[in-house]
Amino acid sequence: MAGKKILLHMNAGNGECSYASSSTLQRKIIQEAIPVLEDAIKKTGDFPKKSCFNMADLGCSSGPNTLFTISNIIKIVQVLCDEKRCKMPEFQVHLNDLPDNDFNTIFKSIPSFYRNLKEANCFVSGVPGSFYERLFPSKSLHLVHSSYSLHWLSQAPENMENNNNIYITRTSPPHVVEAYTNQFDKDFSRFLQLRSEETVSGGRMVLTFMGSSIPDPYGSHYALLELLSNSLIDLIHEGLIEQAKLDSFSLPFYAPSKDEVEKIVEMEGSFVVDTINFFKVKWDERDNDDDICFDAYSSGKHIARNSRAVFEQMLVSHFQFGDSIVDYLFERYAYHLTCNLLVQKGNYFNIVISLTKK
Prior knowledge:
Blueprint: H1 23-42, E1 52-58, H2 68-84, E2 90-97, H3 103-116, E3 122-128, E4 141-147, H4 174-198, E5 199-210, H5 220-237, H6 243-247, H7 258-268, E6 271-282, H8 296-319, H9 323-341, E7 347-357
Parallel strand pairs: 1-2, 1-4, 2-3, 4-5
Antiparallel strand pairs: 5-7, 6-7
C-alpha cells in the first residue's frame, strides 16, 4: 500500500467500506449522536429567517441508514418550528461519498423518502468526491454531518516497518504511532479548513467517528486489527501469501483520542468545540453488557463477517487473493476472534463532536 492513496471514508449504511459494517450497529451509533445533533440544530440560527436549510452528509454510503439521519434532522427542525410557530424552511440535502459509491441505489429510494415526509419540502442531490477536497460553494452550508467516516485517512502512512502488523499494536515501533498521528493531524486539519470555507458563519458540524478512550494508541479496536494481522500471519506460515506483501500493507485508518481532536480543532482555528462526547458499543452489537460472550463462536463469525465487508476490497487489491484464500483468511479471523471473546468482549470506542464555525 506504500505510495498509494486510498480514500475510504464511506459509512456503514450497507456495510461497504466502513469499520463497523452492521447496519444495526450503525443505527445504534447514529442514535447515540442524536442528542448532540439536536442541540446543534437548535443553535444553527433563527429558523423563521431561513427560507432554505442547506446541509451536507459526508460519507453517506448507500444503504438503509443513508437517509435515516436526514429524516431525523428534518423531524428536529419540524419540532422547533412548531414550538416557535414559524414556517418550515425548505431543505437542500447534499449526499456525499466517493465517486464509486452506489448513488443509483440512493436515488431509487428518494421517491419513498419524499412520500414519508410531512409538511416538508426537501431536495436531495448526490455529490461525488473526497471530503479531503472542496465539495461545495463558499459559505453555502448551515449544517455538516458525518457519521463513521473521519477515522478513514486520505492515505496510509508510507514506508513503515511494523513487525508484521497492519496497524498500531503494542509491538509497533514508536515511529509507526507517530506516522499515524501525523497523518490524522494533517487530514483532519485539512478537513476543518475546507469545511470552514463552505460553511456559513455560525454554521454547525456534527461528526461521529471511532476514537480512543484515553490518549493511548493501543485501544480495543487496535486489538481487533491485531487479530486480523495474526490471521494474515497464519497465511504466511501456510505459504499462501508472501511476507513482503504483509510488510508493505498498512490500513488507512486512525482512531484519535478526545484530547487529540480538541487540540487539532484549536490549532486549525476555524471552529469552536461546543460538545464532545465519548461512547462505546460492543464489537458484536447483539451482545448484552456482560463481560464474557454467551456464544463466542457465533460472535466471532458475526464480527468476522462484518469486518469482511469492510476490508475485503482492500485486502484483495493488495494481496491479490483468490476467493478461496479470502474465505480461509476470514475463517482464521473468526477463530482468533472467538479465542479473544472467550476471555473478554471488545468495544468500539466513539467520539461525537459538535463544532461551530467562527
